[in-house]
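ok trying this again, last paste got cut off
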Amino acid sequence: MSLVIADVLSAPRQAWRRFADWLHARMPKGLYARALLIVILPVVLLQSAVAYVYMERHWEVMTYRLSGAVARQVATIVDIYQTFPDDAAHSQLRRIAALDLNMELSLLPKEPLPEPLTKKPIFSLLDKALSIELSRKLLQPYWINTGFSSDRLEIRVAMNDATLRMLVFRTHAYASNSYIFFMWMAIASVIILAIATSFLRNQIRPILRLAHAAEEFGKGRDVQFSPRGAREVRQAGAAFVEMKRRVERAIEQRTTMLNGVSHDLRTIITRFKLSLALMTEANETSEMRKDVDEMERMVEAYLAFARGDGGETSTPTDIKAILEELKADTERRGEAATLHVEGDPIVIARPAAIKRLLANLVGNAQRYGKALAFSLVNDGESMIVHIDDDGPGIPVERREDAFRPFYRLDESRNQDSGNSGLGLAIARDIARSHGGDITLDRSPLGGLRATVTLPI
């Protein structure tokens, strides 16, 4: 029994969840559009409620009152016709109807009244109100046609010897000033929406400026930002400025410390080199020189990885020129290389850092491949650089491991290879500091493809 009750109760919840998911998928995603919807929806609902109340109350009351007045006029004409049956009186009655009552009166031969209209009239409220009021005032059979023309309605009353046909202006029986009401509603809605749009745009602009500043800072570019807008937005902006100051101070302190470490290590390595230069040439000294040179390269690589290039300023950088330089270097090594460029090759970045990034990737391709291919594509949103080689490649399951610092795919520590295991790690660190990334895939040449994506 409890399971049945649970199933019955879960059905409405599931239906509501499906409706909520459907509504969420169709709701605007931007803050500006959502805030504007919050303003528009109440206005539309309020105006609709006012229109409903006005239509159902005010117009109904006014239509019944005007229809009652028309019914009294019709009843008066019928009474006069019955009281004065001679032709002279009829002529006078037509004149009174035209001049005083503003309606057209005509006498038709005695004939049955038309059948009631089966089709619902356009002005159903008028048809209903006028029928009720005529039923109260007249004892004779009558027939009305509220759809006679755009500005008039027709009333026929069956008398003993004739049929009275009256054409009455619609405005006499129906409140026809609806266009004024709807025009007022439309103008008021437009004014409210214009004011709301203007205020919302001013409130959204500081948020967009903050988002743009955060994005630029994430790309490693210089950002000049001052908080503006509402109190909450200014608080978020002030928090961003303080975070930016702390990050820059931490980078500056790290750079200063590593510069000192670099100087001390270079001093010791220089002493080793000097001591080896003063020693007598022998097999041992030759091996020691190789070790010292390898130590120097490793120290430089470690310090470069730890230090990064945070102190460099972002400027317009020509990626094509860097690739052409790397292509020439590859050809000097006796390896084949091609370059393909599509779109504008200029991107805002730190030139030395980008050159180091691409040099590390090209150096990795030179180490394992004999033929290289470089391509550069600017799609309007991102700068995409492909570096392909015909080497052995990297298995899919180990491609992410290749970006780990000090990770070697051959799992060896052969110092003669000159590989410290930091090249790809440094390259990805530089790419991500610019707001981009590096991915590895299979190359059309059969080896490895390194793809660099940088935001424009």
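PB: full thing came through this time. Confidence is low (pLDDT under 50) at residues 411-418.
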